[in-house]
Amino acid sequence: MRVVAGDFGGRPLKTLEGKTTRPTTDKVKGAIFNMIGPFFDGGRVLDLFSGSGSLAIEAISRGMSSAVLVEKDRRAQAIIQQNIKMTKSEKQFQLLKMDAARALTQLTGQFDLVLLDPPYAKEQIVANITQLEEQGLLAEEVMLVCETDKAVDLPEEISNFGIWKQKTYGISKVTVYVR
């Protein structure tokens, strides 16, 4: 696995061995960012189920200003820290070592891009988006990128958001919501 494009493009990323995380493949990661960008002029990104941190690192590599990564698994946290160190831009990243539910009670400010790839997709994505919106954590022009198994059918609308784009890549489905 590697950073696909941008300032850190081509740099290798570590992933967690085993089945506790499902790293987004380079092909799907490239496709996601081509759908939503592919490059950014600043902004703040939230990666609520970070795994290896590769999606948030890709977002920073492509021009986002700062990222908050949330991960509860200790082994995954160690991988994220190694991957962030590889960027040599550690100040742009903040790792919250806790589960998403706890993080959602502690987050402040607004996010321009939210990456959601939870283990139990549909129920958690709907609840997470609703809570983020209720807490005023989402910028007006926010993009919500949800990665799920291709069999998962997310609702057409969640809170004040509707599906903008949706594509299937192999076993993964990417759904992007906007206001």
From TrEMBL:
One Pfam annotation, family name?
Cons_hypoth95
UniProt gene name: rsmD
Origin species, per record, is Streptococcus raffinosi
User: EC number(s)?
Assistant: 2.1.1.171
Keyword check for Methyltransferase, yes or no.
Answer: yes
Q: Which domain of life is it from?
A: Bacteria
- Name of this protein: 16S rRNA (Guanine(966)-N(2))-methyltransferase RsmD
The answer to whether the entry has keyword Transferase is yes
Q: Which InterPro entries match?
A: DNA_methylase_N6_adenine_CS, RNA_MeTrfase_RsmD, SAM-dependent_MTases_sf
Q: Which GO terms describe its molecular function?
A: 16S rRNA (guanine(966)-N(2))-methyltransferase activity
Query: Keyword set for this entry?
Result: Methyltransferase, Transferase
